[in-house]
Write a structure and sequence with these properties.
alpha+beta; Heat Shock Protein 90; 362 residues
């Protein structure tokens, strides 16, 4: 609730700030445009006053009446004097009026362009503020979700281990029961080890540079990952069927691809039923290449296909530890960092096929 209230207060604050900036920009634009129009009107009114002034001087002084252009011309260059039978007609030079209007229009356009640019800057700054606020809120929510999930995942096996330890301390416990409890304790410790490995992988993905962008040959990179997993595969008595033609290349970071494939293979082995068999295929394409990891596990219902990629989501699988729900989340993030996408094909009881679709290297 505290985070929700703080988020609402920050949202209101940023909203008010954005509105104030936009109102200020619109007012500035209106004020400068009105000022330019007022200056033009002032100049036109001054021309009318000068015309009345010149008319008065012509009527008041016979010498001026005789030759108004010579006497008044230097002082009133914007006026035209035309002799008529009944007197001298004083007119404002139309070209001078047009020039005033052109200057006013140019000034107004300048204010409009500058005002529009200024408003765009305000809008861009407001957008940056908003996106920064959203990013901060998302980071806090993600951090709290991660901490809550990690705490829960650690707490469950630890509570189980504590209960088992207390049970082992009881008098009269048979050897068969003790062996059964020890076996479950070992399973909980393995679960803790897997959880620590997953969290360290996520931390490394966020913290450390995964290397430069390189041309990666998928066949060679897949072989390297599978070679590194030989000990893990042997301990689980898992058989891997690997097929990949040479020449399928992608552009990306080697560690990013390796982490994605490693998590898929490890996930397939952990959740498959014995005898464990995992297939790894590379299917080249013109615009994109596909890396498939297929297992013979219990499968995933269609309704959970999107959910399994969420952080800390894990399902309960018969005879297997459900895991912490971090591995597939890391797979999706790493594949997206490579510019690709992850696809899942699965039915309950029919195993899973995870496919990394990666853009072909140029």
């Amino acid at each position: 609730m505290a985070l929700f209230a703080a988020r609402n207060r920050l949202g209101i604050f940023y909203g008010i700030l954005v509105i104030m900036l936009l109102v200020m920009g619109l007012w500035w634009l209106f004020f400068l445009t009105k000022t330019g129009n007022d200056q033009a009107e002032f100049k036109l009114q001054k021309l009318s006053i000068d015309r009345l002034h010149a008319t008065f001087l012509i009527d008041a002084d016979p010498r001026v009446y005789e030759d108004p252009q010579r006497i008044l011309g230097p002082s009133f260059p914007h006026l035209l004097f035309k002799k008529q039978p009944d007197g001298v007609e004083v007119m404002i030079d139309p070209e001078f009026v047009r020039q005033i209007r052109r200057d006013a229009r140019a000034t107004r356009n300048m204010f409009l362009y500058e005002g529009f640019f200024f408003i765009m800057l305000l809008a861009a700054g407001s957008t940056i503020l908003y996106l920064s606020w959203r990013s901060e809120i998302k980071f806090k929510e993600t951090r709290e979700l991660f901490l809550a999930g990690a705490t829960h995942e650690f707490k469950t096996p630890l509570a189980s281990l504590r209960l088992y330890c207390e049970t082992l301390g009881r008098d009269g416990l048979g050897e068969a029961d003790r062996m059964k409890i020890r076996k479950r304790m070992i399973e909980d410790m393995k679960r803790l080890e897997n959880l620590v490995d997953d969290i360290l992988s996520m931390s490394a993905d966020d913290t450390f540079d995964q290397g430069p962008q390189l041309k990666l040959d998928l066949a060679r990179e897949c072989r390297t990952v599978l070679d590194d997993l030989k000990g893990f595969l042997s301990s689980h008595q898992a058989e891997v069927d690997f097929q990949a033609p040479d020449g399928a290349e992608v552009t990306g970071r080697r560690l990013t691809f390796a982490l994605a494939l490693r998590n898929l293979v490890v996930n397939a082995v952990r959740h498959s039923q014995g005898p464990v068999r995992v297939e790894v295929r590379v299917e080249p394409g013109q615009k994109s290449h596909r890396v498939l990891v297929r297992d013979n596990g219990p499968g995933i219902p269609r309704r959970l296909h999107d959910k399994v990629f969420e952080c800390f989501y894990s399902g309960v699988r018969e005879g297997k530890s459900a895991g912490a729900g971090i591995g597939l989340h890391l797979v999706r993030r790493n594949v997206e960092n490579l510019g690709g996408r992850i696809e899942l094909e699965s039915e309950t009881g029919a195993g899973c096929t995870f496919t990394m679709v990666l853009p072909a290297g140029k």
